[in-house]
Amino acid sequence: MTELFGAPQGIMAREEGNRAAMLGGLGAQKLLGEIAAQPVELDYRKSLARLHGAEATAKEAESAAQLQLLKLQQDWVTKEQDAREQLVDAAASQGRTATVADLHEGSAQGGGVSQADSLRRFADFAEQHGTPPMALAGLHDKIAGIAEKEAIGFYRNAQGQDIEEKRKSALRQRIGGIAQGASASPQAYAAAMMSPDRKLLPPELTGDYATDAPILRAVAQQSMTADQQADNARQDRDQRSRELRRSAGSAASTAAVTRNQAQADIATERLRILKKYGGDSAEETLKAKRTANEAAQRAMDAKDAKAYPPIPLNPKDIAVGDSYSKDGKNYKVVGKGPDGKPVFRPVTGLHAAAVAAAAMSANAGAGDEEED
Domain boundaries in the chain? Predict the structure, then answer.
């Protein structure tokens, strides 16, 4: 009987051997696959290393720029303190006490004081000392934020003053008209004294036309003078509001230019490192090049938007000597016509040449640097 069980046992043994052989073959194939994948894995790890190295280099550049800004800030505080002491001494030599107004004399804000004035001066100081945009971007964002809040706050306050002044003007005109009419003749005077509007006239009136007529004429003249003064004050508020809006727009444009230029500089530095250690044709280099080109284009667009902002709808906001854009074309305001409207002159050629030159410079600086 044992012979009857020999065949099945042999078959089972043979199948077990086949399975073992198949597993062994699969294991060998897996090992060969892992060995074949090692160069790819190695390239991937090198690629990651290059990417991390480029990111680290860009971060180092940002940190170095921030340290430079902090050092300049210390120098600026010393410089400001020295300037303040000179103002105090100068005022004392003139027999007076220096005030905050002395600090803002000749301010670009139309003679007004802005909370951003000191930051603007520091930003100019830092830029003159070669501080890169990546360190100045945050500073210009703060300046733009302050300028925007000041422009909005002044405009809303001016609106409230205008509404109140219109109410007062209407009352002054009414009183002036009554006084002017009452001073015209004794009959008109008598009628005015019997009218309910009598309560609007000065209580000091005596009831005698000959005595009160000069007083009534003075009241009418005073009403006209007060209206003119109020109109002058309103025009001053309008002018100040335009200056603040103009300043806020300029600050926002400068912030956008600085921010986009900082991003372009970082992208260019990242591309330089990747190109240096990974070559021109590496995948991460090609991606970085596209990113750098896009960042450079955004930087140029921001500069263009600052140099040629859209033409304001309100002609009063258009300044002679400024440049604007409309329908994709650039213009400069060269004066005003007989009707008081601005006269525009097309600007051609200059902007396109500037863009082309900057693009060529950016591409050249991004990847043609020799290895150390």
Answer: 132-307, 310-363
